[in-house]
């Protein structure tokens, strides 16, 4: 992606300028980010998605007796009528289920794939919304249908109301207010307070991000290290030729504590292992994603493209795909990085792969992680 090209999507800023000035720092309102935007998913399709098992959805109602929240799936006719005011339903990860939504998400790949998460779509009746709140992650709020009034502010006080089934700020103070029309977009950095209320029926697409959390990442990496540790660290026994005779028999010798720290240092010393565990973690498919087995003989002659649900990334030594890592170098590394960046590889490029890399691609195709390139 050309990071120096001004984009209507970013109000005429280049991706580089946007990342420097706004990303994780301050909001950006873009009028006509996608001129003449015609959403490829409408109300009926979204209601159908919210009815499906394996699709994450929520219903939020702002009722006279307070906020109500319910998790999907929502079978046919179980949602309130759209003539009833002040309710909304939200469908998470629509990019996993719809090629057009997945294609739109690609426009945001000036942010690394490791940070891009999903597209959530909300559909609200008049007055509907999820209340004043803040999110922990950056978000682009793209208005897809109808109008939404956004009020936003840098609330210092992030105290949440207690006893409500969703996160609602106790003392929301708006500093700015805008009404968004279809094609308009609002970027908000993490923790920026906001409240979006539908003016008539309204659909909003949230392009969302993820960021590893310290403790969770440490646990994931350590679990991976634990699997490798027995072989990787070695099998030498603790030795204590200098151990003196003890009068306090139950006390653990400090040298044994040092030994424990040394073996852990040894387990952490292999930087490539840590890198491959990180890549495997970052490309792990979402919990609700299952790949079938291909019903056709895999074949690279037409070129290949990644299935929309496939996650593929790379570092200096490895490529990672759907939670697995492969050591690659030379021409194969160049071609596989091209596949990860472009999410496709032409037939002529496939023909240049080594035998072992071609075998890997055929395996991925048999697992439906890849499919023949669509012309
Ligand atoms: C919505 O689409 O209603 C909520 C999006 C958000 O506030 O993050
Ligand atoms: Co939000």
Distinct small molecules bound, one entry per kind: succinic acid, cobalt (II) ion
Classify the helix fraction into a percent range.
25-40%
- Count of individual domains: 2
Q: Determine the number of helices (DSSP H or I, runs of at least 4 residues).
A: 9
SSE ordering: HEHEEEHEEEEEHHHEEEEHEHHE
Low-confidence stretches are none
Briefly, what CATH class of the largest domain? Mainly Beta
CATH H-tier superfamily of the largest domain: Cupin
Q: Could you state the oligomeric state of the chains shown?
A: single chain
Average pLDDT score:
96
- CATH topology heading of the largest domain: Jelly Rolls
What structural class should be given to the helix and strand makeup? alpha+beta
Reported CATH architecture of the largest domain:
Sandwich
Characterize the largest beta sheet: strand count, sense, and whether it forms a barrel.
9 strands, antiparallel
Number of strands: 15
Q: Whole-Å distance between the termini?
A: 21 Å
Backbone shape: globular
Overall radius of gyration: 25 Å
- The fraction of residues in strands falls at 15-25%
